[in-house]
Amino acid sequence: MPANDLGRQWRDLRGALTAAFEDVGESGWYVLGREVSTFEEKLARMWGVGHAVGVASGLDALEISLRLFGCQAGDKVLTTPVSAFATTLAILKIGAVPVFVDCDPSGLISLDACEALLERASDIRYFVPVHLYGHSLDLERLAVLRDRFGLRIVEDCAQSIGANWRSENSLMRTGTVGQIAATSFYPTKNLGAFGDGGAILTSDAELAQRARQFRDYGQSSKYRHELIGYNSRLDELQAALLGRVLLPEVEGWIEKRRSIARRYLAALKHPGIVPVGADIVADGDTPGSESSWHLFPVAVSQERKAAFLNYLKEHWITPGEHYPIAIPDQPAMERVAYEEHGCSSARLLCASEVSLPIQPYITEEEVQHVIDVCNHWRG
């Protein structure tokens, strides 16, 4: 059982996807045309923001977003030590300095630790928090930190499309507290393209307009270059596949992921296999994260992790590891400047995390197989 069976998705949606491909081919327009603008409008509407700007990748979405704020070489950017490396790479490509703060037991950056650091470090103006695994950070708390410390926030929503934070009084969607959000359409994401892609999301019309310039060589109009920009454009074909076929499915897919997650949470009984983030999941009227469950992470003992991974593979289950090495410990970080403020919980999580299969094309029987195999582990 693969962690992501994109072949099942293709077989389900082949007709609609093929029709979209043919329409783009017949149009003769392949870059920054009607398909991109239509998809951007649909994505912004679904997300509840004013504007979406399609770019070539999630990495570009993060880097361009930071540049929109004026972030430059030497500036400090608060962020998490547990994420895909792209989160940090976007900071490093600018020449800025990542400032790593530890995560909490859910794998999300600790907002308590962030607040403590910000109280004594007045030179941190930028923040890239990650809604890891599809879990939402406490968005009310994030908004308080934004306002109290004057932070310019790029929410990394590559794993959290459709995720919300439920408070006692409101429901807030990830990507709506920061002035800008960035997301990815890498094929394995909850909304994944047939290749790479990403988007910048904001309700600030001026930021959106500048993002459109940045992605297209810095042009304000044809052959007039106002900025030192990028060639980072979501192409017409990916926009057509996403906007016409995949985006209409994503809410249903997320509900399927939530259904699988509920089964795992209710039925996994092995004391040595602990779901990561279960403590922050909203339950009925209880405040918390309404996760989009991009991943279903569990923690096992460091000493038994390799054995557990092998055990799952022996039973035809393909597990994942997200992420086995904390970002400050990556070899590439030996050659760059960064700050680290206590990352012991992050390293423990990296050493113990295993991702169980969770995707919308898993069958009920396959979900039960994962549960049975986990519960019978002798680790």
Compact summary:
With 379 residues, the chain is α/β, with parallel strands linked by helices.
Description:
Helix content is about 40%, strand content about 15%. The protein is of the alpha/beta class. The chain folds into two domains: about 5-245, Type I PLP-dependent aspartate aminotransferase-like (Major domain) (Aspartate Aminotransferase, domain 2), CATH 3.40.640.10; about 250-375, Aspartate Aminotransferase, domain 1 (Alpha-Beta Complex). It has an eight-stranded mixed sheet with strand order 1-9-8-5-4-2-3-15, with helices on both faces. A three-stranded antiparallel sheet has the order 7-6-13, with no helix packed on it. Strands 12-14-16 form a three-stranded antiparallel sheet. A hairpin with a 4-residue loop joins β6 (about 165) and β7 (about 170-175). α2 packs parallel to α8 (about 235-265), α3 (about 60-70) crosses α4 and α5 packs parallel to α6 (about 140-150). The two termini are about 20 Å apart.
Radius of gyration: 21 Å
Q: Class of the largest domain in CATH?
A: Alpha Beta
Q: Give the name of the CATH architecture of the largest domain.
A: 3-Layer(aba) Sandwich
**What proportion of the residues form beta strands (DSSP E)?**
15-25%
CATH superfamily of the largest domain: Type I PLP-dependent aspartate aminotransferase-like (Major domain)
Q: Could you give a short account of the major beta sheet? A: 8 strands, mixed
Shape: globular
Order of helices and strands: HHEHEHEHEHEEEEEHEEHEEEHEHEH
What is the CATH topology descriptor of the largest domain?
Answer: Aspartate Aminotransferase, domain 2
User: Ranges with pLDDT <50 over ≥5 residues?
Assistant: none
Describe the strand arrangement of the main beta sheet, using strand numbers: 1-9-8-5-4-2-3-15
Helix content: 25-40%
Ends distance: 21 Å
Q: How many structural units, i.e. domains?
A: 2
What structural category do the secondary elements indicate? alpha/beta
Total count of strands: 16
